Every structure is written in structure tokens, then in C-alpha cells.
Description:
- The structure holds two protein chains of two kinds.
- Chain A is α+β, with helices and mostly antiparallel strands.
- Chain A has eight helices and 20 strands.
- Chain A has a six-stranded mixed β-sheet, with helices on both faces. A five-stranded antiparallel β-sheet of chain A has the order 13-12-11-14-20.
- In chain A, helix 2 crosses helix 3 (107-120), helix 2 packs parallel to helix 4 (136-150) and helix 3 (107-120) packs across helix 4 (136-150).
- Chain A is elongated, with a radius of gyration of 25 Å.
- Chain B folds into two domains: 2-58, no CATH class; 67-273, MetI-like (MetI-like fold, Orthogonal Bundle), CATH 1.10.3720.10.
- The longest helix of chain B has 32 residues, at 68-99.
- The chains are: A alpha+beta, B mainly alpha.
- The A-B interface holds A 50-52, 71-73, 77-79, 81-83, 85-89, 98-99, 102-103, 146, 150 and B 167, 169-170, 172-179, 183, 187-188, 191-192.
Amino acid sequence: MASVSFENIEKSFGSTKIIHGISFDIADGEFMVLVGPSGCGKSTLLRMLAGLEEISGGTISIDGRPVNDLDSKDRDIAMVFQSYALYPHMTVRDNMGFSLKLRKAQPNVITERVAKASGILNLDPYLDRYPRELSGGQRQRVAMGRAIVRDPKVFLFDEPLSNLDAKLRVQMRAEIKALHHRLKTTTVYVTHDQIEAMTMADRIAVMHDGRVEQIGAPLDLYDRPDNLFVAQFIGSPAMNIVNGTMRNSAGGAFVEAAGGMRWPVSPRNAVEGQPVTLGVRPEHLTLAAAAGDSVLGEIIVVEPMGAETELLIKAGESQVVLMTSGRPNVQPGERVGLSLDPGAVHLFDQKSGQRLAA
Amino acid sequence: MKNVVTEAKLLLIGIPVAIWTLLPIYNLFVFSISSKDEVFAGRIWPEHPTLRNFETVLREQHHFLGHFWRQLGNSLLIAIAVGVITLLIATTAAFSISRLKTRGGRTVLNLALFTYFIPAAFLAVPMYKAMGVYGLLDNQWALILAMITIASPYAIWVLKQASDKLPFELDEAARIDGASPLQLFVLVYLPLMAPSLVAVGIYALLLAWNEYLYAFLLLSKPEDITLAVALGQFLSADDSPWELLMTTGLLYALPPAAIYYVFKRYMQTGLTAGAVKS
Lengths: 358, 278
């Protein structure tokens, strides 16, 4: 086990700079998820850590030791690829033992460690099969087995669940998490799926355009996004966004949206007349009587999901999603009031997208 | 109904093509089982079919055939050497260009292909001179080296295309697992390339087996030449023993046919493997 540190990491392909000076540390035993839309540089960062990409600038250290000039094989890492990258001509057993064989380990050591890993991953019945004879989930487990056998300092996962169907993905998510609990090996996990990030990570680094937008525990990112990008990227359904102008009146603060709709907020350090973006999570909106100071809206779509119901509502010129537990008795076309907890509302500067503190 | 029409069209094309291809072979066969008197009788099937010719050839009982077994052995030795060495060159080149991404690999590949812009026949005389400079004339290495030169560009090209289809993650996984380039080559690359290697090896082998012009130019001693050249010498006499020429030709065609039949599966998948980007 080991800590990992990125110090001012830069990466260019030719004259195109795709990673702009990223710095952060990953603690020993931590499960760190790098998440972001495609092209944000998360995979490149992981591949630089793996030694598969040159580092254009900065220093990557594993356990305090810079690894910039070390070969992949000398970094003591193991990687699980999206395509699994199992050797097609080797059995599961040989796939898992390959790295030890290359390191000239004793045959009995190889047998023992492969048996241990296959026990952890329930691969015993498949040890003599070839990858082509396995299902997607089994192949994924073999790829993890190949990583475990090495007992490396750091596990690297590059979108390992993207090729699996939805149901299997949920199952493997839990398996990887349980595996991390058991082995406590430092893990860096790349995904574009924010739900994977939320459910698995100790900490998440949200990346965008080659920069880290915010790093923190999943619920911290959810509750206090630093900027609009993180606010909209984390959470499903996504946070509702309304653009408007800040108004501080004697009766309380509100955001006046286009069309005159007033969204109440708690006072912020935003000045009167400042263009702001209001963000509110679907579960922080509730249905209220269509009267008084509540925000008025018209229901467009009702999506019952059993435990919860999602309502798509047109309020002024914005469309918002409301998520409520239970099954409200409403129909499309119905006019409703919306009330929101002013304390749960997020405000961002419209120009910079940065959070406006309360 | 549509199927019947399609089938009929295919047959209409297929039957003439089959006749066109098989007729010379049939002719070869009929010659080989005819006696000397019957050879030019012009019958579809000889009146008295005989295996005498085969006996004559296999026992080297004619002065044109004095070294039959030796020359067959020469053909075999040269073909196998060309197949093996071409494979060695082409595999390492393709691995280096496609997997290790060696700088300038692309240029080497294009230059190699460029050699095919000049017909091999035009290169025969320069090649003869070059071999003379190296003192290799009348040495079977001259023919082996010449055939490797001709076979390699295509072999490199095909293997490079086939290599490109192996997922690059395999190399990366192996690198992380601790494989050196040589271990990657031997333990991962070669086993996965096996079908293409068989196809390309056989291609080079058959190219050398069937070669006449270069063999004729570069070798001259009766005990050095290949059977293909020996067959050509039959025509130097006025009263050529056609039935023996055809019998030897038939025997000479058997090994390639056998090889092709055994490795048919690989030939089809291997040679087309790099043809289409999927």
C-alpha cells in the first residue's frame, strides 16, 4: 500500500495542452475516483500514473518516490482495463499468474497466490477456461484477479464497468467496493459515470477540460459544489438551474428570473442586481398550494417510479424537475405551486460559475 | 425463385472457370499416364494407361532426370529456408513497426512496398550482378537471398496489417505485468499472430518453390539447381520426352497442393486478416 501524489502535472500532445497543472494527493488505502465527461483528461492522468503516457511536466510520486522515469513494471501498480485486456491464448489461471511468471516467482508461489485471488473472486470453477469462454462479468473478475495476484502498491481502474450491462454493472460496483474494503489497497478509479463515483469513492476528483474542478467526499460535492460544473455533473437527476438577478428586499432575498418569477433564497454575499445562477436539487423542491409567495408552475410530465415520482414542471421560462417520495395525485397540465427550502438553494455567479457563499 | 436465378448465374460463371482451370491439369495428368507413343495421339483418355513414367522419374532412369531426387531436395531446402527466414524478418519488422511504434517505421513500410513498383523480372539482371559481387553465384544462398528480398515486402505489409488488429491494451497490460519487449514478442505477440504467420510463411515458401527465372539465372550446376529449372531443361532437346516432363511436373505440383490443403484454414483467414479494416 502507498500514497500517490500528483504535483503540477501537465500533458501535451504536440502543441495541444490537455492537462493544465494538476496537483493533489491520494492517501494510503484511499479509494479515489476521477470523474468527468469524456475528453476531460481523467484517463490520460491515470495512464501517466501507470507509466503508459509520458509526463510532459510535473512530478508523480508513489509512496514519496518520484516515478516519472520509471517503467510501468517498476512502479508496482496493477491496472484493470475497460476492454479487460486478457491474453486470449492463456487460460484464466495463466492470465492471473502471468506477471508472477515474468517476475520469475516459484511455481508453488504462483499457484498459491492465484488460488488465493481466485478464491476471493469466486473464479475457482473457471481457472482452466479461456477468456473467450467467459461472460463479460467473469472476464472483468479475471482482470481484477490478475491485478490482485500481484499485490501491488496501487490499483488502477480505467472505466472497468463500461462494457457491462446495467444490472451487472451495479453488481460489479458492489464487488469492487467490497474488494477494496477487504484489501485496503490504494485505488485510483476512472469513470465518466457520476453514480459509480458517488457510490464507490472515498473521495472524488471532478475533472473538466484538463483541470480538477473540485476534490472531496461524495456527499460534500453533492451538498456544497464549488461551481456550476460540479453542481450539474454530480447528482441524478441533475440539479435544476435557473438564471436570474439577485434582489435583496425588506421581505427577504430572492432571485428574479426572466419573466418575473421570484425564487426565494437565504441572504448571500451577492449584491443587489448581480446576475446569478440558482441551483436547487430535485428533492429540495416540494409541491405546495398555488398561492402566496410560492413559485407557480405547470406540470408537463409525470414519471412514477414506484418509490419515487419525478415531475417535470414548467415554472416561468425555466423547466425544473421535482422529485418526491410517494405518489402525488397530479396530472399533466395541472397548475401547482412550488416551495423550496431557501437554505438548500445553491447560488453561483453567472459569469464565473463560482459558488457564492452564504 | 430469386435463389435459383442467382444460383444459375453463379453456375454459368463457375463452370467455364472450372473447366478453364482444370483442363491444363487434366492434360498434365493424361500425359503422365500415357506411353511415349500415345502422347500425341490426341485422345481424351489413353488406350493403355500406364504408370511406367512415374517409375522412370522416381528411379532417375532418363538422362534429363539424373538428379531428380537431389533437385527435389534442393527445391524443398530452398523453399523452406526462404519461408523461415522471410517469416523471421517480416515478423520482427511488423512487431517493431506496429507494436513498438518504432520511429520511421511507416517510411520503411512504404519503401518496402515501393519495391513492387519495379517488376521482379527487371531486377533479375541487377540481382545477378549483385550476387556476383558478393561471390554467391552458383551458390544456393544466392537464390535464397533473392527470394527473401522479393517475398519480404509483402510479408511485412500483411503481418503489419494483422498486427494492427491486435488490441493495444494487450501490450499495455503485458508491460504493466512486467514484460520486456522480447517477452511481449515471444509470449503474447507470436501466439496471437499464429494464423497470419502460417499464411505468410507458406506464401514465401510457395513463391520460392515456384520460382524459375531467378533459379535459372543464379544457379547452373545440375546438382545445385531446383527441379523447376531442371524441368525447363527438358525443352533443350529436339525430341523432348513430354510424358516425363509432365509426370515430373505433376509430382512437383503435389507438395504445394498438400501444403495448401493442410493449411487452407489459415491461408484464408490469415491472408485476408489485414485486408479490411473492421
